[in-house]
Amino acid sequence: MYKVSLLTRDGATIAFDAEPSDTLLDAAERASIYLPSSCREGGCGACRVSRESGDVELMAYSSVALSEDERMAGDILLCRAQPRSDLALRAPFDEAAVGFAPVPKRRATLVAIEPVGSGTLRLQLQYKDDPTFGRAAQFTAGQFIELTLPDGSSKRSYSLANAPNWDGTLELFIRLQPHGAFSDYLRDRAAIGDTLLVRGPQGQFTLDEASAAPRWFVVGGTGLAPALSMLRQMGEFADPRSCRLFFGVNKVDELFALDAIDSLKAALPQLVVTLCVWKPEKEWREFTGTPVEALAQALLTAPERPDIYVCGPPALIAAAEEAGRSAGVPHDRIFSEKFTAA
Ligand code: FES
């Protein structure tokens, strides 16, 4: 048995024991410590922390979740690391991101499913009444849920696109993947009335309410979902702070949720939206290029440095971080959530 201590970004120390055959994530959970995670199989990077001292053995993982540079710098994935000595770890999140009770598991009914853009579906789920949680969809705007297929065969995490609400509604935008188990279900078998298991809410990609800086959202494809959730929440609170949305897709017909974006502009009159299409095949009046290119241009003339919220594929996040850094946005004012295909 080894001793593990994890120092959070805000200086709290979290300690637990781990057997050599445990992953650090499982060992923490046995001690009722629920550390940030998503896929639990080395694919997403949500559980990445830095190793200050001690040794681990890393099981197989994707380079999307942990790059070679990150590994060389001492980073590890909690869901893939087994201890080989006592460990001192440093986390990129605050103590508030750590749960001390299991993530809730609830059941939800599929109430709507419709195509909304080439290759993208909009899903609406409705929580069933639950003796512990009631009906409400309580979460923090920007968080995600993990869905399990009705037959239990596959799980997948998706960001919520709507704001928290009392009637238990969950809205998701899902990009169909050619050979994804979840995509196959949605394409071929999903039916209104299906019951899905929901594990959540989870995730730390949420608004920093303590900051007064403008909020800029840079999103690719279904990375729009958490930004929509956060902006809708701002709209409900009539938040007066300056905000921008850079929403990018590859082709014009992949754009979706434009009606939702229009409604947002009514609720948040100060919101400036830039629709970005990388390869527009017909006449296109808005930005041609990636949302990161639009971000970089806008930063050139921005009167103050914004907080930047980025969501999309790993390459988009890396490019947005680089654009932000070279325009003088401090590293800790860039918040991100990686979307990986599955
Ligand atoms: S939870 Fe560990 S990489 Fe996804």
Automatic annotation (TrEMBL):
Database matches in InterPro entries = 2Fe-2S_ferredoxin-like_sf, 2Fe-2S_ferredoxin-type, 2Fe2S_fd_BS, Beta-grasp_dom_sf, Cbr1-like_FAD-bd_dom, FAD-bd_FR_type, FNR_nucleotide-bd, MRET
All copies of the 2Fe-2S ferredoxin-type domain together span 2-95
User: Residue limits of the FAD-binding FR-type domain?
Assistant: 103-208
Q: Where is the signal peptide?
A: none
What molecular function does GO assign, one term?
A: oxidoreductase activity
Its domain of life? Bacteria
* PROSITE patterns membership: 2FE2S_FER_1 (PS00197), 2FE2S_FER_2 (PS51085), FAD_FR (PS51384)
Q: What Gene3D superfamilies has UniProt attached to this entry?
A: 3.10.20.30, Nucleotide-binding domain of ferredoxin-NADP reductase (FNR) module, Translation factors
Q: What is the name listed in the Swiss-Prot or TrEMBL entry for this protein?
A: Oxidoreductase
Q: Which organism is it from?
A: Methylocystis rosea
**Lineage, highest ranks first:** Bacteria, Pseudomonadati, Pseudomonadota, Alphaproteobacteria, Hyphomicrobiales
